[in-house]
Write a sequence for this structure.
């Protein structure tokens, strides 16, 4: 979310008038950065899930893996998944609230 860049006042308003400029590609740039942040976040959740699965499989096969490392990886995966679900729920709730607004 640190990649979002807001235009300065000089870029938004023309010099000497109060009309808003119509910069090209500005409406696409926030969508692009939001999509990249969303994709990166989903990839991080997936990585923690995969790491937990790998360590659990190694433990089940009897390989030399510390039990506490397996448990920590499992808890990290669980927490990241719960956080992702809560964020999804809040986004859906905000969308539904917006759709209920009268115009």
């Amino acid at each position: 979310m640190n990649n979002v860049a807001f235009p300065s006042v000089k870029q938004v308003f023309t010099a000497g008038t109060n009309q808003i400029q119509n910069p090209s590609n500005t409406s696409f740039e926030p969508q692009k950065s939001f999509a990249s942040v969303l994709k990166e976040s989903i990839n991080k959740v997936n990585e923690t899930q995969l790491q937990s699965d790998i360590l659990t499989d190694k433990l089940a096969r009897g390989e030399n893996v510390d039990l506490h490392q397996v448990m920590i990886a499992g808890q990290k995966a669980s927490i990241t998944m719960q956080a992702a679900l809560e964020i999804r729920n809040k986004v859906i709730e905000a969308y539904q609230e917006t759709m209920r607004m009268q115009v």
Q: What stands out?
A: Residues 43-103 form one domain. The CA atoms of residues 1 and 37 lie 7 Å apart. DSSP finds three helices and no strands in the chain.
